[in-house]
Amino acid sequence: MQSDRLTSNNTRVIQEQLSNSSDFQTHDLTAGNRHFRLYYLNTMIEYAIVQEHIIRPLLVHTDVDIREAVSVLHASETELLTDAITAVIEGKTVVQIEGETTLYIYGTALNKERSINVPVNERVLRGSNEALIENLETNLNLMRKLIATPDLVVKYYHLGRRSNTKIAILYLNSIVNEQIVQELDRRMNSIDIDYVEAPGFIQELVEEKSFSLFPQMLVTERPDRVRSYLMDGKVAILTSGSPDSLILPVSFWAFFQSPDDYQINWLLGSTFRILRVFCFIIAISLPGAYVAMVTFDPRILPFEIALTLQSSMQFIAFPAVLEAISMLLILEILREATIRLPSPIGQTIGVVGGIVIGTVVVQSNLVSNTMVVVVAFTGLASFIIPSYEMSSAARLLPYPFIFMSAILGLIGLEFAYLFVLAHLSRLHMMGVPYFYSGLNAGSIRDTLFRAPLWRLKTRAKESLTRNKVRIRNPRGWEK
């Protein structure tokens, strides 16, 4: 009677902890002289596993210990109801034997996940066509296959009091800087939040400068890219429910690198990387430079160009600063519309809306032809940046440049550049400089441009790695 009361009390406690959920089920069975009760959520378990590997062995092997009878790979024991409740929520089946206080936990979770597909946000011409998915175990499987070494360390965290989100941190033990791992561990363990929506939540909760427009962690969905950064001594953060990985610490220049840079000739790779940096400068300052020259300093332009600008702005009622801000806002509205609408409609709205609005605003003398060209070029320059986070920063930075140029002309533009450079120079991530570390003699070979692979003998200094040598004898065939 006491054991029956214990089993009933356990059922009641688990039911109450699960807020009396209707999908919580118990199953009683008798095998020989033993009575079993199974606890599970019927929406989370694989019925075939429960039937074939738990119930059937218990009914057949009536005189065998449950540890020998049940053949489930993930099995554990506990005497705590809190552990049993957590296991039930995770899709496991808990078995209790009448007369015993030990609870047996078996992994029977139903796994429903999408197949590994091609990267959507980081398409490249050459390289792997596999992308991370929302299942953490599958992502770790991909990384283990790409980095087949016992040196790869995986550490688990559970964040969120209510969501209990599972997070994994990956690094190569013999390469990574121990202080960076310890500092990240301290920050992760200090997070106290109800639920975690990764990777955005983790990025904001871990980074040092929360009010900076510049991303301080690199987000990628490509396993091969995660592997390359791990090989450089960096740390990767993978989260259950997210197809993205966070990489840290990274420098400002990492956001202009693409996997394609290392799959083509180094001269072409360097050219494209310099082009991205140049386009970033164009994206943040071209509208401001236009406003400064038109409003304050038209005399620095060649005479023919000044006449062209004067003729295009002859009947424009709005000042140049309002032209620039309004056209940039229209560009952002069109971009958001193409993203939020379904794909076929979004592409149509983007093309037709851009043509119609551009034609109408010019013909109605609200905006000059030159301003339309400037804004269009600014938008294209921001889209060439490989990182979505850095591209978003490049779309917001033109506004302070425009305001400074409208107030002080080219001097204001120079002040805006100084403010941005000073801010970048002050940024750190895990004690690693964000900007100027990529401009020293040892790192510039793989930041501003891409040197030949046989010249990249050491890892980037920004990682502060213990093992700095990456290539020992790259062209040993040459005698």
TrEMBL record:
Does the entry feature the keyword Membrane, yes or no?
yes
- Any stretches that span the bilayer, and where are they? 235-254, 274-294, 315-333, 345-362, 369-388, 400-420
Q: Which key words are in the record?
A: Membrane, Transmembrane, Transmembrane helix
One Pfam match, by short name? Answer: GerA
Which PANTHER family did the record assign?
Answer: LEUCINE ZIPPER PROTEIN 4 (PTHR22550:SF5), SPORE GERMINATION PROTEIN (PTHR22550)
The record's similarity note reads: Belongs to the GerABKA family.
Q: What is this protein called?
A: Spore germination protein
Q: Which organism is it from?
A: Paenibacillus terricola
